[in-house]
């Protein structure tokens, strides 16, 4: 069995273990943890959107919470103001986040390094204050609550049932991670990495750097929007506070701790820090100090993140001596072969 096969077998076992959580959790823990696992899956999508930009394209964004918030409000406004059902409101939330990402990305991806990070924060702040001011639409400080929508009326499935809600969230998150896996393995994913490695060389071999970054930005916004839409359905509530840039900062930490440029890194980093927070907060009111210490230790001991360092330790990412050194060389060879 090859190293790659072992790696994907581990991913499959991990996915199956999470999928069976409602069953094994009854024997090893409280049903309360089902909600925590659901929340971890949702927040990991926000971390995955950060990872897509920073880990694969080299763009550090502190504004992903903006698209998370648009996903939340798309669902909340669709249900409470327009009377839409679950699926139309879910699609509305995802579409709203994607359109917002397309608009903001058209300006943001023209910049790089700290300029890019700053403009993403600026967009986040503008729409945060706009949402706070538009109280008639967003609820302002109070947020916007709505009743539980029916998932499947004929089958009697509703999100008020914790198990049904968990599998609804799990299925959508699984689909998102599968889509990301296909994306990063595709020629477009190779272009992402080529731009990350050296944008000037990427441009010289014919890659449109601006368009490549913009596409990545929109896809990352959609990922964050899916997370926001699911979080709104999870809590039956939307609030502008989730659009603030400190929420994006948390997602950056989760992605770095899990491992940038890895598929499962965002999920592992999110799971570790949220579960650690929940456990420690039950014993110590200053639990954030412990969380900070844990983050520092992980970064010091595993600079590539947990999953990245595990890959390195097990030699799963050991390069083939005959393979191209980077994505740019691989793209160049692909062009020659065609």
Brief digest:
By secondary structure, the protein is mostly helical. The protein is 74% helix and 3% strand.
Task: Give a description of the structure.
By secondary structure, the protein is mainly alpha-helical. It has a domain at 37-244. The chain is 74% helix and 3% strand. It is built from 16 helices and four strands. The protein has helices at residues 3-19, 21-28, 32-56, 64-80, 86-108, 113-133, 135-138, 162-185, 187-197, 199-204, 209-235, 245-258, 265-281, 287-301, 305-313, 327-337; strands at residues 144-145, 150-152, 157-158, 237-238. It has a two-stranded antiparallel sheet. Strand 2 (150-152) and strand 3 (157-158) form a beta hairpin. Helix 4 (64-80) packs antiparallel against helix 5 (86-108) and helix 5 packs antiparallel against helix 11 (209-235). The protein starts with a helix and ends with a helix. Mean pLDDT is 88; it is low at 319-323.
Strand and helix layout:
Elements: H1 3-19, H2 21-28, H3 32-56, H4 64-80, H5 86-108, H6 113-133, H7 135-138, E1 144-145, E2 150-152, E3 157-158, H8 162-185, H9 187-197, H10 199-204, H11 209-235, E4 237-238, H12 245-258, H13 265-281, H14 287-301, H15 305-313, H16 327-337
Antiparallel strand pairs: 1-4, 2-3
> How is the biggest beta sheet arranged?
2 strands, antiparallel
Radius of gyration: 20 Å
Strand content: under 5%
What's the rounded overall pLDDT mean? 88
Number of helices: 16
Roughly how many Å apart are the termini? 31 Å
Tertiary shape = globular
Low-confidence regions: 319-323
- What class do helices, strands and sheet pairing give? mainly alpha
Strand order, sheet with most strands: 1-4
**Secondary-structure element series:** HHHHHHHEEEHHHHEHHHHH
Helix content: over 70%
Number of strands: 4
């Amino acid at each position: 069995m090859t190293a790659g096969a072992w790696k994907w077998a581990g991913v499959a076992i991990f996915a199956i273990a999470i999928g069976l959580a409602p069953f094994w959790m009854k024997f090893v823990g409280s049903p309360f943890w089902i909600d925590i696992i659901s929340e971890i899956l949702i927040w990991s999508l926000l971390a995955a959107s950060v990872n897509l930009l920073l880990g694969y394209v080299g763009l550090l964004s502190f504004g992903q919470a903006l698209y998370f918030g648009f996903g939340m409000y798309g669902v909340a406004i669709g249900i409470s103001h327009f009377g839409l059902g679950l699926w139309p409101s879910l699609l509305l939330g995802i579409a709203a986040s994607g359109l917002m990402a397309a608009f903001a990305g058209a300006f943001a991806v023209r910049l790089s390094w700290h300029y890019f990070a700053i403009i993403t924060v600026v967009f986040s702040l503008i729409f945060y204050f706009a949402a706070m001011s538009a109280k008639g639409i967003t609820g302002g400080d109070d947020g916007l609550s709505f009743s539980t929508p029916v998932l499947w009326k004929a089958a009697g499935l509703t999100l008020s049932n914790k198990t049904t809600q968990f599998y609804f969230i799990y299925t959508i998150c699984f689909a998102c991670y599968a889509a990301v896996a296909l994306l990063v393995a595709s020629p477009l994913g190779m272009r992402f990495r080529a731009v990350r490695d050296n944008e000037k060389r990427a441009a010289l071999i014919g890659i449109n750097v601006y368009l490549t970054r913009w596409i990545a930005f929109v896809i990352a916004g959609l990922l964050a929007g899916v997370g926001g839409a699911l979080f709104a359905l999870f809590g039956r509530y939307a609030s502008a506070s989730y659009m603030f840039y400190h929420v994006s900062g948390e997602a950056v930490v989760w992605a770095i701790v899990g491992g940038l440029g890895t598929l499962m890194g965002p999920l592992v980093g999110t799971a570790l820090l949220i579960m650690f927070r929940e456990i420690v907060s039950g014993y110590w009111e200053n639990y954030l100090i412990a969380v900070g210490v844990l983050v520092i230790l992980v970064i010091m001991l595993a600079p590539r993140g947990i999953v990245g360092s595990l890959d390195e330790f097990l030699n799963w990412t050991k390069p083939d001596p005959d393979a191209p050194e980077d994505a740019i060389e691989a793209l160049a060879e692909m062009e020659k072969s065609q």
